[in-house]
Design goal:
CATH class of the largest domain: Mainly Alpha
Radius of gyration: 27 Å
CATH topology of the largest domain: MetI-like fold
CATH superfamily of the largest domain: MetI-like
Keywords: Cell membrane, Membrane, Transmembrane, Transmembrane helix, Transport
Family: Belongs to the binding-protein-dependent transport system permease family.
Organism: Gryllotalpicola reticulitermitis
CATH architecture of the largest domain: Orthogonal Bundle
InterPro entries: MetI-like (IPR000515), MetI-like_sf (IPR035906)
Number of helices: 13
Shape: globular
Largest sheet: none
Membrane topology: Multi-pass membrane protein
Distance between the termini: 55 Å
Oligomer: single chain
Helix content: over 70%
Length: about 300
Protein backbone atom coordinates (compact mmCIF):
# COMPACT_ATOMS: atom_id res chain seq x y z
CA UNK A 1 0.00 0.00 0.00
CA UNK A 2 1.44 3.30 -1.07
CA UNK A 3 1.61 6.40 1.08
CA UNK A 4 -0.95 8.15 -1.13
CA UNK A 5 -3.43 5.30 -0.70
CA UNK A 6 -2.95 5.27 3.07
CA UNK A 7 -3.48 9.02 3.22
CA UNK A 8 -6.65 8.71 1.14
CA UNK A 9 -8.05 6.00 3.46
CA UNK A 10 -7.28 8.13 6.52
CA UNK A 11 -8.97 11.15 4.96
CA UNK A 12 -12.03 9.08 4.08
CA UNK A 13 -12.33 7.72 7.61
CA UNK A 14 -11.98 11.24 9.04
CA UNK A 15 -14.70 12.49 6.74
CA UNK A 16 -17.01 9.65 7.80
CA UNK A 17 -16.46 10.44 11.50
CA UNK A 18 -17.16 14.13 10.85
CA UNK A 19 -20.34 13.24 8.97
CA UNK A 20 -21.47 11.00 11.83
CA UNK A 21 -20.87 13.83 14.31
CA UNK A 22 -22.90 16.19 12.14
CA UNK A 23 -25.74 13.65 11.94
CA UNK A 24 -25.71 13.22 15.72
CA UNK A 25 -25.59 16.94 16.50
CA UNK A 26 -29.08 17.86 15.20
CA UNK A 27 -30.58 15.03 17.28
CA UNK A 28 -28.92 16.27 20.47
CA UNK A 29 -29.89 19.83 19.71
CA UNK A 30 -33.46 18.84 18.98
CA UNK A 31 -33.69 16.79 22.19
CA UNK A 32 -32.39 19.73 24.25
CA UNK A 33 -34.88 22.05 22.56
CA UNK A 34 -37.71 19.62 23.30
CA UNK A 35 -36.76 19.47 26.99
CA UNK A 36 -36.54 23.26 27.23
CA UNK A 37 -39.91 23.70 25.51
CA UNK A 38 -41.51 21.19 27.88
CA UNK A 39 -40.06 22.91 30.94
CA UNK A 40 -41.16 26.32 29.63
CA UNK A 41 -44.68 25.01 29.01
CA UNK A 42 -44.93 23.56 32.53
CA UNK A 43 -43.64 26.82 33.97
CA UNK A 44 -45.93 29.15 32.06
CA UNK A 45 -49.09 27.00 32.30
CA UNK A 46 -50.12 28.27 35.79
CA UNK A 47 -49.85 31.86 34.56
CA UNK A 48 -51.92 31.11 31.46
CA UNK A 49 -54.52 29.31 33.58
CA UNK A 50 -54.62 32.27 35.97
CA UNK A 51 -55.29 34.80 33.21
CA UNK A 52 -57.80 32.60 31.36
CA UNK A 53 -59.70 31.86 34.57
CA UNK A 54 -60.03 35.56 35.29
CA UNK A 55 -61.60 36.04 31.86
CA UNK A 56 -64.14 33.19 31.91
CA UNK A 57 -67.67 33.05 33.37
CA UNK A 58 -67.86 31.67 36.92
CA UNK A 59 -69.99 28.67 35.92
CA UNK A 60 -67.34 27.33 33.50
CA UNK A 61 -64.30 27.25 35.83
CA UNK A 62 -64.08 23.46 36.15
CA UNK A 63 -66.51 22.34 33.49
CA UNK A 64 -65.59 24.33 30.39
CA UNK A 65 -62.58 23.98 28.08
CA UNK A 66 -59.20 25.41 28.98
CA UNK A 67 -59.68 28.26 26.53
CA UNK A 68 -63.06 29.89 27.32
CA UNK A 69 -65.66 30.03 24.60
CA UNK A 70 -66.73 33.45 25.92
CA UNK A 71 -64.47 36.08 27.48
CA UNK A 72 -65.64 38.56 30.10
CA UNK A 73 -63.82 41.25 32.08
CA UNK A 74 -66.49 41.50 34.78
CA UNK A 75 -64.21 39.94 37.43
CA UNK A 76 -61.63 42.77 37.28
CA UNK A 77 -63.82 45.67 38.46
CA UNK A 78 -65.37 43.36 41.04
CA UNK A 79 -61.93 42.41 42.41
CA UNK A 80 -60.87 46.07 42.38
CA UNK A 81 -63.87 47.18 44.44
CA UNK A 82 -64.37 44.21 46.76
CA UNK A 83 -60.76 44.21 47.99
CA UNK A 84 -60.13 47.99 48.01
CA UNK A 85 -57.37 47.08 45.58
CA UNK A 86 -55.93 50.59 45.20
CA UNK A 87 -55.38 51.11 48.96
CA UNK A 88 -53.72 47.75 49.55
CA UNK A 89 -51.73 48.05 46.33
CA UNK A 90 -50.22 51.30 47.60
CA UNK A 91 -49.54 49.64 50.97
CA UNK A 92 -47.68 46.84 49.22
CA UNK A 93 -45.82 49.28 47.00
CA UNK A 94 -44.43 51.49 49.75
CA UNK A 95 -43.62 48.56 52.06
CA UNK A 96 -41.81 46.76 49.23
CA UNK A 97 -39.89 49.85 48.05
CA UNK A 98 -38.86 50.75 51.61
CA UNK A 99 -37.72 47.18 52.23
CA UNK A 100 -35.73 47.00 48.99
CA UNK A 101 -33.99 50.31 49.75
CA UNK A 102 -33.18 49.23 53.30
CA UNK A 103 -31.85 45.85 52.22
CA UNK A 104 -29.74 47.44 49.47
CA UNK A 105 -28.12 49.83 51.92
CA UNK A 106 -27.30 47.23 54.57
CA UNK A 107 -26.43 44.41 52.18
CA UNK A 108 -24.13 46.49 49.97
CA UNK A 109 -22.24 48.04 52.90
CA UNK A 110 -21.92 44.73 54.75
CA UNK A 111 -21.03 42.85 51.56
CA UNK A 112 -18.26 45.33 50.80
CA UNK A 113 -16.92 45.10 54.34
CA UNK A 114 -16.80 41.30 54.29
CA UNK A 115 -15.27 41.21 50.80
CA UNK A 116 -12.66 43.99 50.94
CA UNK A 117 -11.99 45.00 54.56
CA UNK A 118 -10.17 43.37 57.44
CA UNK A 119 -11.54 43.59 60.97
CA UNK A 120 -11.62 41.40 64.11
CA UNK A 121 -13.90 38.35 64.14
CA UNK A 122 -14.75 38.88 60.48
CA UNK A 123 -15.33 35.21 59.69
CA UNK A 124 -17.19 34.54 62.95
CA UNK A 125 -19.64 37.38 62.30
CA UNK A 126 -20.10 36.29 58.70
CA UNK A 127 -20.89 32.69 59.67
CA UNK A 128 -23.27 33.90 62.41
CA UNK A 129 -25.20 35.98 59.87
CA UNK A 130 -25.37 33.10 57.42
CA UNK A 131 -26.63 30.82 60.20
CA UNK A 132 -29.82 32.89 60.36
CA UNK A 133 -30.64 31.72 56.83
CA UNK A 134 -31.01 28.16 58.11
CA UNK A 135 -33.88 29.03 60.44
CA UNK A 136 -37.38 28.78 58.91
CA UNK A 137 -39.66 31.78 59.24
CA UNK A 138 -42.31 29.81 61.11
CA UNK A 139 -39.95 29.18 64.05
CA UNK A 140 -39.17 32.88 64.39
CA UNK A 141 -42.65 34.32 64.11
CA UNK A 142 -43.50 34.20 67.84
CA UNK A 143 -40.20 35.73 69.11
CA UNK A 144 -40.39 38.42 66.43
CA UNK A 145 -44.02 39.12 67.31
CA UNK A 146 -43.15 39.57 71.00
CA UNK A 147 -40.12 41.73 70.14
CA UNK A 148 -42.14 44.07 67.94
CA UNK A 149 -44.78 44.28 70.64
CA UNK A 150 -42.18 45.19 73.28
CA UNK A 151 -40.81 48.10 71.22
CA UNK A 152 -44.25 49.37 70.20
CA UNK A 153 -44.08 48.49 66.49
CA UNK A 154 -46.80 45.84 66.46
CA UNK A 155 -49.62 46.63 64.03
CA UNK A 156 -47.34 49.21 62.38
CA UNK A 157 -46.22 49.13 58.76
CA UNK A 158 -42.82 50.51 59.74
CA UNK A 159 -42.40 47.57 62.12
CA UNK A 160 -43.15 45.22 59.22
CA UNK A 161 -40.49 46.96 57.12
CA UNK A 162 -37.96 46.57 59.95
CA UNK A 163 -38.85 42.89 60.16
CA UNK A 164 -38.44 42.40 56.41
CA UNK A 165 -35.11 44.23 56.27
CA UNK A 166 -33.62 42.38 59.23
CA UNK A 167 -34.70 38.96 57.96
CA UNK A 168 -33.69 39.52 54.32
CA UNK A 169 -30.41 41.41 54.69
CA UNK A 170 -28.19 38.34 55.43
CA UNK A 171 -29.04 36.59 52.15
CA UNK A 172 -28.63 39.78 50.13
CA UNK A 173 -25.34 40.45 51.94
CA UNK A 174 -24.19 36.98 50.90
CA UNK A 175 -24.97 37.79 47.27
CA UNK A 176 -23.25 41.18 47.39
CA UNK A 177 -20.16 39.76 49.08
CA UNK A 178 -19.88 37.14 46.34
CA UNK A 179 -20.19 39.87 43.72
CA UNK A 180 -17.74 42.29 45.38
CA UNK A 181 -15.20 39.45 45.64
CA UNK A 182 -15.05 39.33 41.84
CA UNK A 183 -13.93 42.97 41.64
CA UNK A 184 -10.15 43.49 41.52
CA UNK A 185 -8.52 44.59 44.78
CA UNK A 186 -6.15 46.80 42.76
CA UNK A 187 -8.95 49.30 42.11
CA UNK A 188 -9.60 49.70 45.83
CA UNK A 189 -5.90 50.01 46.60
CA UNK A 190 -5.38 52.58 43.84
CA UNK A 191 -8.23 54.71 45.20
CA UNK A 192 -6.77 54.53 48.70
CA UNK A 193 -3.36 55.57 47.40
CA UNK A 194 -5.00 58.58 45.74
CA UNK A 195 -6.27 59.64 49.17
CA UNK A 196 -9.87 58.51 48.95
CA UNK A 197 -11.55 57.54 52.19
CA UNK A 198 -13.22 54.18 52.65
CA UNK A 199 -16.69 55.57 52.03
CA UNK A 200 -15.48 57.40 48.91
CA UNK A 201 -13.95 54.17 47.62
CA UNK A 202 -17.21 52.36 48.24
CA UNK A 203 -19.45 55.02 46.70
CA UNK A 204 -17.34 56.21 43.75
CA UNK A 205 -15.40 53.07 42.77
CA UNK A 206 -17.30 49.99 43.92
CA UNK A 207 -20.97 50.96 43.55
CA UNK A 208 -20.71 52.05 39.86
CA UNK A 209 -19.33 48.60 39.02
CA UNK A 210 -21.87 46.80 41.21
CA UNK A 211 -24.99 47.51 39.17
CA UNK A 212 -25.52 43.87 38.09
CA UNK A 213 -25.23 42.72 41.69
CA UNK A 214 -27.58 45.44 42.92
CA UNK A 215 -30.10 44.52 40.22
CA UNK A 216 -29.99 40.89 41.36
CA UNK A 217 -30.72 41.92 44.94
CA UNK A 218 -33.51 44.27 43.83
CA UNK A 219 -35.32 41.58 41.84
CA UNK A 220 -34.98 38.88 44.49
CA UNK A 221 -36.02 41.24 47.29
CA UNK A 222 -38.88 42.84 45.38
CA UNK A 223 -40.34 39.46 44.51
CA UNK A 224 -39.94 38.11 48.04
CA UNK A 225 -41.41 41.16 49.78
CA UNK A 226 -44.26 41.69 47.34
CA UNK A 227 -45.47 38.10 47.73
CA UNK A 228 -44.83 37.73 51.47
CA UNK A 229 -47.88 36.66 53.46
CA UNK A 230 -47.01 35.16 56.86
CA UNK A 231 -45.30 38.10 58.56
CA UNK A 232 -47.72 40.68 57.14
CA UNK A 233 -50.79 38.76 58.24
CA UNK A 234 -49.33 38.27 61.73
CA UNK A 235 -47.86 41.70 62.47
CA UNK A 236 -50.60 43.91 60.96
CA UNK A 237 -53.97 43.52 62.66
CA UNK A 238 -55.66 46.56 61.12
CA UNK A 239 -57.20 45.57 57.78
CA UNK A 240 -56.55 49.01 56.28
CA UNK A 241 -52.79 48.61 56.80
CA UNK A 242 -52.48 45.20 55.16
CA UNK A 243 -50.55 44.75 51.90
CA UNK A 244 -52.13 43.09 48.91
CA UNK A 245 -51.42 39.38 49.39
CA UNK A 246 -53.27 38.82 52.73
CA UNK A 247 -56.27 40.71 51.34
CA UNK A 248 -56.35 38.57 48.20
CA UNK A 249 -56.09 35.46 50.36
CA UNK A 250 -59.27 36.53 52.14
CA UNK A 251 -61.14 35.96 48.86
CA UNK A 252 -60.77 32.22 49.43
CA UNK A 253 -64.06 31.10 50.98
CA UNK A 254 -64.51 28.23 53.40
CA UNK A 255 -67.23 26.60 51.32
CA UNK A 256 -67.27 28.57 48.08
CA UNK A 257 -64.73 30.70 46.21
CA UNK A 258 -65.34 33.15 43.40
CA UNK A 259 -62.43 32.00 41.26
CA UNK A 260 -62.70 34.66 38.51
CA UNK A 261 -62.57 37.44 41.13
CA UNK A 262 -59.64 35.82 42.95
CA UNK A 263 -57.63 35.18 39.79
CA UNK A 264 -58.39 38.69 38.50
CA UNK A 265 -56.95 40.17 41.69
CA UNK A 266 -53.90 37.89 41.47
CA UNK A 267 -53.38 38.82 37.82
CA UNK A 268 -53.37 42.52 38.66
CA UNK A 269 -51.05 41.92 41.60
CA UNK A 270 -48.30 40.26 39.53
CA UNK A 271 -48.01 43.13 37.04
CA UNK A 272 -45.44 45.13 39.13
CA UNK A 273 -43.23 42.04 39.54
CA UNK A 274 -43.22 41.40 35.79
CA UNK A 275 -42.44 45.06 35.05
CA UNK A 276 -39.52 45.13 37.51
CA UNK A 277 -38.06 41.93 36.10
CA UNK A 278 -38.42 43.02 32.47
CA UNK A 279 -36.85 46.39 33.31
CA UNK A 280 -33.82 44.86 35.04
CA UNK A 281 -33.47 41.45 33.43
CA UNK A 282 -30.22 42.23 31.59
CA UNK A 283 -28.50 43.45 34.73
CA UNK A 284 -30.03 40.52 36.65
CA UNK A 285 -28.49 37.89 34.35
CA UNK A 286 -25.13 39.65 34.40
CA UNK A 287 -25.23 39.78 38.21
CA UNK A 288 -25.92 36.06 38.52
CA UNK A 289 -23.07 35.27 36.12
CA UNK A 290 -20.46 37.57 37.62
CA UNK A 291 -21.36 36.77 41.20
CA UNK A 292 -20.99 33.04 40.67
CA UNK A 293 -17.24 32.96 39.95
CA UNK A 294 -14.45 34.56 41.91
CA UNK A 295 -11.50 35.83 39.92
Amino acid sequence: MTAATSEAITTTRGSERTARRRRRFPFGKSFASFILIAVAALTIFPLIWLVLTSLRPADTIFTGPIIPTRFTFAAYPKAWVSTDFAIHFLNSLWITVATVVGVLIFASIAGYAFAKLRFPFKNVIYVALLATLMMPATTLIIPLYLQLKSIGLLNDQFGLVVLYVSSSAPFSMFLMRAFFSTLPDELVQAARVDGAGEFAVFWRVIIPMARPGLATVIIFQFLQTWNEFLYANTVLQDTGKLPLQPVLFSLLGQYNTNWPTLTAGLTMSIIPVILVYVWMQRQFVAGLTLGAVKN
